[in-house]
Amino acid sequence: MEEFARAVEDGLKLSKRLVLPGGLPPPRPPAGMERTVSAAAASGPDPRLLPTAPMAYAVVTDPAAVDTPDVPSYQPYVYGHLDPPALIPLQMKEVDLAVDCALDAAHVTLRARWWLHCITRSRECDVRLVVPLAEQGSILGAEVTVGRRSYNTQVIEVEDTLENHAKIESGGLLKPHLFFLTIPQVEGGADICATFRWSQKLLYDSGRFSVEIPFRYPYFVNPLPKVFMKREKIQLTVNSGFSKEVLLQGTSHPLKEKSRQGDKLFFHHETIVENWSSKDFNFSYSVYSGDLSGGVLVQPATLRDYNESDMFCIFLLPGSGNRKVFRKAVVFIVDTSGSMQGRPLENVKRAVSTALSELVEGDYFNIITFNDELHSFSSCLEQVNDKAIASATDWMNANFVAEGGTDVMHPLSEAMALLSSVHDTLPQIYLITDGSVDDEHNICQTTKTELTNRGSKSPRISTFGLGSYCNHYFLRMLASIGKGHYDAALETASVENRILKWFRRASSTIVANISIDAMTHLDEFEVDSEYIPDLSANSPLCVSGKYQGKLPDTVKAKGYLADMKEISIELKVQQLKEIPLDKVLVTQQIDLMTAKAWLSADKQLERKVIKLSIQNGVPSEYTEMILLQTNLDKVDGTQKVKQKLKGQKGRDEQRILLHGLKLGFGNKDATRENLITGFGDMNPAEKLVMLQKGNGCCSRVADCLCCMCCIKACNRMNDQCAILMAQICAALACLGCYECCAEVCCGGSES
Question: Backbone phi, then psi, for 165, in 5-degree steps?
Fold first, then answer.
């Protein structure tokens, strides 16, 4: 994202040309910040220029177009062409944030209005809208209105023909968790009204739920108070789904409780502000529960459902009763193939070292590294003590060397053999890899058979994927088969933190071998995951599925505690219209069903995923998200409705494909060739050409007397470059080198 920050830096420099109404300059940074920014710029682009809230940018290729829309500033004319373009952050007029928290997820809707304050009305430019999502955020849709043009996202089948195969710059993921759209040819001074919807997982820690939303707006998006009145509006609802008291723990913004309706709470904040929010939105709450608790929520089938079964969700909370955690026998399986070299493997090593230090007396451990070969820290499980942990750390420093290929089955079998003789501990395997292998289907089937044969003593298998080349659906399915936890890191900077969160969640089991007695009352009972996972002290348990028949008023969840005593929890069955389960659970359902469809190659299951995806506007591996452009001036309302009902595309509609919204099913070729995963980027073929930037044209021209090489070395020309090139051209003409002169001045033309 260094290129993005540099483009914004260039845009801010260009915006200094602006003179706002009344002869006022653009907003200045807070006292002391300008000095800090200048110091940071000396060592490269300032990372604070990256978006920390939904933003809009003018994409400027012609600096001469930069001016105030209504009152010309009469700045000196600027020559040249910017390639790549500069990004000028647009001033925001209003913002409205709505957050709905239900069970373990939050659905977010953000509405905002920007104006193209930096382009004269006689000119046009593209506008790029960028939305930072939370770590586990998924975009659900967007609508944009500019004048008499409207844009909205839709999900369609992959097989549908797109007449307009758009460039990658049109929209999609700029990087993981950074969604963007590009709206073309916006007239200077126009308003851009946008609505974005996304879902994200609630964070859970020590009995407290919290939601965090990027909401830090930089000073340069604040219009001057004399120009616009800034109104900030935030609405939040909390629906725990259970008849338990909800306790407010903290909020970043001054929310006021407006009402309570049963288990549902409403909060509201609306005020005129001098500056837009300078901090992320954070809200935390707890559901009062002294011990394990939960419930079963049901939703009757509708005509929209992919089958005629009713939907259920079993939700269990670990409570705040400080239940004892199972003693553990853990084996870390770490991929050390050649593609892991550099920061990925270093971050993994630090995370595993920290995880080892968090094991306690009475636990056992071992470490296996794998590439073409297999290496173990010890030939058996080691008891946890300071000496053993120190020895393991030294062993990792010596043996975590990235080289060779990828073979998952051999180390997995070795780990299960190591754990076959453990007693009085919960056996756990933690697999970390960045690659995709040929025998993934066989690995799942073999592992499932092995675990079934071992029964309740079978090891839990948790999987972690790094980057975009591994098959995340294989890893998700393997974790589902192993009653473990799956997670992933798609950016290098998040590897260590995500691995530790994953390990702490998976290693804090307080109830194991959970079963539900509802099956005895029903004609059909199907869980979306392969098995019901264990309950962790660090995470609520949410299990969804379908059923046919009539559930009793209460059902029982049974399991075993760390002292191997059986526990039974009575769960009340209820239908809450305030919690639309199909909306709350759709992302989880699509991910699990896609993993099942991948393993079974079941086309009927793929069709179910497609139907779920299109109905709920959530992209999947079998669908595409597009941006549909409609000219409101030319489309008659009745005609528009008829076209929608028939699924037809009108003459005044354009469909633009959005890129980068799929994980894919792994890249075996990249794994075999040991290509280093492009963390934080798209696949190499999908690099964002718009953000590539030269290192400075002038120095290259000065250092190179071959004029054609100068042009090829840098694809960007500013005023100084133009002057210098003209001087070189004149000098070459004087020396009689007319051919080179033509190459420089005319780009190789014969004129």
Answer: -80, 95
Contact call for residues 504 and 358 (beta carbons, < 8 A): yes
Cβ neighbour number for residue 389 with a 10 Å cutoff: 16
How many angstroms separate the CA atoms of 348 and 495, rounded? 7
Average pLDDT of the segment spanning 502-521: 89
Which among 374, 370, 375 is positioned nearest to 338, based on CA atoms?
Answer: 370
pLDDT in tens, 265-287: 999 999 999 899 999 999 999 88
Tell which residue, 596, 593, 539, 498, has the closest CA to residue 177.
Answer: 498
Could you read off the pLDDT of 170-207 as tens digits, one per residue?
899 988 889 999 999 999 999 999 999 999 999 998 88
Tokens of 159: 């097989």
Q: What is the pTM of this model?
A: 0.84
State the Cα–Cα distance between residues 644 and 583, nearest whole angstrom: 22
Between 401-415, 426-440, 736-750, the lowest mean confidence (pLDDT) is in 736-750
646 HSE (CA, 13 A, CB side) = 9
Asked whether the bond before 84 is cis by omega within 30 degrees of 0, the reply is yes
Secondary structure class of 721 (helix, strand, coil): helix
Residue 100: φ, ψ to 5°: -115, 115
Res 697: pLDDT: 36
User: Rounded to whole angstroms, how far apart are CA atoms 256 and 265?
Assistant: 11
DSSP assigned state of 216: B
Pick the closest to residue 130 from 46, 44, 58 (CA basis): 58
- Residue 651 to residue 667: CA distance in whole angstroms: 39
What domains lie within the chain, and their CATH numbers?
A: 1-287 (2.60.40.1730), 293-322+512-579 (no CATH), 328-507 (3.40.50.410)
Contact 617, 610 (CB under 8 A): no
Chain CA centroid to CA 132, Å: 8
- Residue owning tokens 């009475």: 362
For residue 647, the model assigns a pLDDT of 46
* pLDDT tens digits, one per residue of 106-116: 999 999 999 99
What DSSP element (H or E) covers 126? strand 124-132
Whole-angstrom distance, CA of residue 421 vs CA of residue 115? 67
For residue 356, is it left (φ>0), alpha (ψ between -120 and 50) or beta?
A: alpha
Residue 273 DSSP label: E
Residues 384, 386, 387, 388: is their CA dihedral positive or negative? positive
